[in-house]
Amino acid sequence: MFAPFLAALVTLAAPLPPAPAWRTPFENDPARNTTATYAECVAYYQRLAAAYPAHVSLREAGPTDCGLPLHEVVLTADGDADPARGRARHRPVLFVQNGIHPGEPEGIDASMMLARDLVQQPRLQQLLAGVTVVIVPIYNVGGALNRNATTRANQDGPASYGFRGNARNLDLNRDYVKQDSRNARSFAALFQKWQPEVFVETHTSNGADYQYTMTLIPTQHSKLAPALGAYLQQEMLPALYHGMDQKKWPMTPYVDFAGETPESGMQAFLESPRYSTGYAALFHTIGFMPETHMLKAFGPRVQATYDLLVTVLETVQRQAPALLAARAAALAAQATQTTFPLAWALDDKPSETVRFRGYEAGHRPSAVSGQPRLYYDRARPYTRPVPYFNTAHATATAPAPTAYLIPQAWGEVIDNLRRNGVRLERLAQDVTVPAETYYVEDFQTAPRAYEGHYLHSQVRLRPVAGPVACRAGDYVARVAQPAARYLVETLEPQATDSFFAWGFFDSILQQKEHYSDYVFEDLAADLLRREPALRQQLDEAKKADAQLAASGPAQLEWVYQHSAYHEPTHNRYPVARWLGAGTLPTQ
Fold first, then answer.
1. How many CA atoms lie within 13 A of 17 on its CB side?
2. DSSP string, 171-199
3. What structural domains and CATH numbers belong to the chain?
4. Could you report the per-residue pLDDT of 31-55, keeping only the tens digit for each?
5. Mean pLDDT, rounded, for 391-414
6. What are the start-end ranges of the E strands in 282-414?
7. Which of 418, 567, 576, 556 has the alpha carbon at shortest distance from 491?
């Protein structure tokens, strides 16, 4: 599947059974079909931190939309939970987040067990040597409080669970860039504080039926800097797959495919920054979304998640020098990067082949409609090669400016940039500088609301170079900084998850002044008499456009749009690109 993996891995022995007093709600259920509630989960970590203060810290990490706090659990070998000191000691950080979709709760229970075993089991304690583990016990607190037993209609257990939407009915795994929720804002501050090398967010999949309990979405390697992408493909992923094989959990890439069944060809999940792994990639963090299979029982799903987290921790500890070196190389490469990708597509040719363990599929009449329906036959398992489309290419790029000039009026944008680690300066005085601005020529808008927004796409821009007037207090965001990818992909309008795409700048798209036809008729006629070149442009436009030629109101509007009467800010993107001519008086 991946590049040859030569290093022999030593898998730690399975941990001893926990003492009865330390069993989780999941472990206390003989049927292994119970997941901890929010209150039970937090209380468990509180007890663990009180019993093992030399290794476990539990802290509130900011508000969530439901009013209850987000928590962070920090596990270290020496009790030092300070991120700066950990970075100074070249100690990589493994950041695990659970319960973004509380109806997919395996990670909640697996992480409780793992945290306990890391401080109680001598055979596992060694994994904390040289690695800091940060756990968010339950990210979507409001969804976890909204317990039910029916909303995961396709899933085998647990008996009750939380709901996908948070307290504002937002899907938090679409909120990593726009950060509408307090959850996402608290997460961003936490992520920037720790700047993890590896980020794992636990999930459960929907989709086809197959033999695997665990599937895996890694950060799309093509979207990482070359050194980091190569490390992921050639060293880290082979170690994870081998480690899970050793633990008797054969694993496959996340099962997404173009046709009706997986044999049609597996497709890598092409995550954009709205998703966890896409967001992490903007900061040169390797992200993973483990997706257990919904049709496997809850007990095996929790155990597979536990074993994957152990395998990731084993790998981070063992490969720490290579991981840190690859990330350092990625940051160094970004410092000299002149062009940034904004949108991506998978290549149309497979990059490799996966030995896939599936079930034969067929069709039979539906008992509901009588029409043919798809089914998978578990009595007919197979293992066969399946093409895997796992390489992506950029479909839009932008040359990097020296800095972006952001008017102070756009406070929500400024807040998001600051929260996500972007360094900002402020202009000390009014200044007019040569820069490049965009006019939005065209775009498409989704007809229905998506996560609280009407998303824009297919953005077409007209760049204009010229003087840009800035006011004292306006912001300067220089691209030469560690958060450069986040900065570019949020401020370039053509990027898939730019702030423009999410509607943060929609007010520029509405014209604020217009005219009365009967008044402007005389002004337009006088304008055409005084400016023969404008009359010629209108005549040429009429020759090229029959509808324009046939419509008096359309011609009047054309003159207005091409005159000084038309407001210059209409459709003008307010963030300017400063290309470095001269200096900026910043404070």
1. 5
2. -GGG-TTT--SHHHHHHHHHHHHH--SEE
3. 20-333 (3.40.630.10), 354-393 (no CATH), 399-511+570-578 (no CATH), 517-561 (no CATH)
4. 999 999 999 999 999 999 999 999 9
5. 97
6. 286-293, 339-346, 352-365, 372-389, 392-399, 403-406
7. 576
Q: Which residue's structure tokens are 């290579």?
A: 322
Nearest one of 195, 239, 231, 233 to 94, comparing CA atoms: 195
Which distant-in-sequence residues (6+ apart) come within 8 Å of 457 by Cβ? 443, 444, 445, 446, 496, 501
Q: Kindly state the helix (H) or strand (E) to which residue 75 belongs, with its residue range.
A: strand 69-75
- Among residues 106, 197, 291, 557, the one annotated as catalytic is 291
Residue 245's SS3 state is helix
- What does the alpha-carbon distance between residue 270 and residue 346 come to, in Å, rounded to a whole number? 7
Q: Output the pTM of the full model.
A: 0.94
Contact predicate 213/244, CB 8 Å: no
DSSP for 464-505, written as a single string:
EEEEEEE-TT-EEEESSSTTHHHHHHHHSTTSTT-TTTTTTT
- Give phi and psi for 284, each to the nearest 5: 60, 35
Retrieve residue 15's tokens: 């941990």
CB-based contact 459:500 (threshold 8 Å): yes
Distant-in-sequence, close-in-space partners of 316: CB < 8 Å, separation ≥ 6: 92, 94, 131, 197, 198, 323
Query: Exposure string (b/e) for 534-548, b if CB count within 10 Å is 16 or more?
Result: beeebeeebeeeeee
Instruction: Give the whole-angstrom CA distance, residue 35 versus residue 25.
Output: 6
Any alpha helices (H) in 121-181, and if so which ranges?
122-125, 141-145
Examine the residue annotation and report whether 557 is marked as an active-site residue of this protein.
no
**Which residues on adjacent β-strands are paired with residue 97?**
136, 201
The one-letter code for the residue type at 215 is T
pLDDT digits (tens, 9 = 90+) for 266-310: 999 999 999 999 999 999 999 999 999 999 999 999 999 999 999
